[in-house]
Amino acid sequence: MPSTAHAPDHRAAPASRPHRSRTTWVMAAVVVPVLAVAAMLMVLTWPSATAGRDAGREAGIIDVGTQYVDGTVLRTQDTTCEGTVEDVRPDGTVPAQVTCLQVMVRLAGSGREVQVFAPAGTTSAQVPDGTRVIVERYPARDGADETFAWSDFARGVPLGTLALVFLMVTVAVAGWRGLRAVLGLAVAFVVLWTYVLPGLVAGTDALLLALTAAVVIMTVVLYLAHGVSVRTTTALLGTFAGLAVVTLVGSLGAWAARLPAVATEDDYRLAGLLGDNGVEILHGVFLCGLVLAGLGVLNDVTVTQASAVWELRTADPDASWRALFAGGMRIGRDHIASTIYTIAFAYVGASLPVLLLLQVYDMPLGRTLTGGVFAAEIVRTLAGSIGLVLAIPLTTGIAAVAARATPVTARLRREMAEHGHGHAQPA
């Protein structure tokens, strides 16, 4: 009896393997070319490592002789200084004299003591003795003496400690998977810092930069955090589909709404610093930001949907494609509702200072929402939300097909358990 009980399993497994193999090859035939094209484009469009620095020098905002030196506050003293634009009053006038904070700093290494002035509004209570700060050193040249100026507070220790706590908590709760996710995040920031940002400054097509970086980042992040499997590839395909939707809807929305490239003071300043092509570059920066902003949320929903469908498949090996899709969409609908709130409130939180400013100016709500700044945020939010919503059924459908082609084996159950899904029932 035991031998006959196991016979059907041995006969069923080989029959499923060709189907599974075809599904795997179809997925690979999509993912591999997309990744290969993205990698090739990244190599061809890789910007100069000094693109940002060169632009800063040409604009005259980078002093190559400036040095940043760590120091420790010895003492502070309130005094009077000449008013500057930082002290401008609500009526637009600048006072002749203002109260300012004089700070005596001992420089690290040399032990030299120098005097600097803290930024406007800084009080002695905010800079107690022993506070670590950074000062700017301007060397003597053109007959002028060497000078020092306040740069910022030294935040390396508190920020580093907070990052270490985050890493420890992540590893403690999520184990090695959490550590791999953090490593993937580090890779993503390296790509953004060394490829996307210098590429934007150099004038490379912003949409090309965003899509190329998004494909490479998502491929590395997903496979690094979740392992190489059909389920992970399903989530990756869903993410690619969502990115395509976000890009298309965002481009159409920006064109239809005639969004301005320059809408804020920071935009005007950046456009001037970028040179003659500054306004043209900023046109693409919006779309680049739109694509990159959708990465995290798309990754979240596609991984969740793929895992949910595989969980349903493991719990009910006889479930049809329709049953898997319907079950996955029941989960997906709940996820849609909560994630849309996440996107909307994330943008509200980021735009809170602007909202407060508009309250002070008593701008009409309709005029506020259709103005250049908020129109861009509305297009960004709606395009991201549309891509998110459509990515869920697309990912669920792909996952249902792939899961049906995957035989429920002991290995699959172990993989599901390792991914935190422990609801599988014996076949």
Q: Give the overall shape, derived from the CA principal axes.
A: elongated
Low-confidence stretches: 1-18, 420-427
Helix fraction, binned, reads 55-70%
End-to-end C-alpha gap: 17 Å
Nearest-angstrom radius of gyration? 28 Å
* Percentage beta strand: 5-15%
- Average of pLDDT: 79
Counted beta strands: 5
Count, helices: 13
As laid out across the biggest beta sheet, the strand order is 3-2-1-4-5
- Helix- and strand-based class? alpha+beta
What profile does the largest beta sheet have?
5 strands, antiparallel
SSE topology string: HHEEEEEHHHHHHHHHHH
Give a written overview of the molecule.
It is elongated and about 80 Å long. The longest helix has 47 residues, at 156-202. The model is unreliable at 1-18 and 420-427 (pLDDT under 50). It is an alpha+beta fold and 427 residues long. The two termini are 17 Å apart. 27% of the residues are buried. Helices cover 66% and strands 11% of the residues.
Short description:
The radius of gyration is 28 Å and the shape is elongated. With 427 residues, the chain is of the alpha+beta class. The protein is built from 13 helices and five strands.
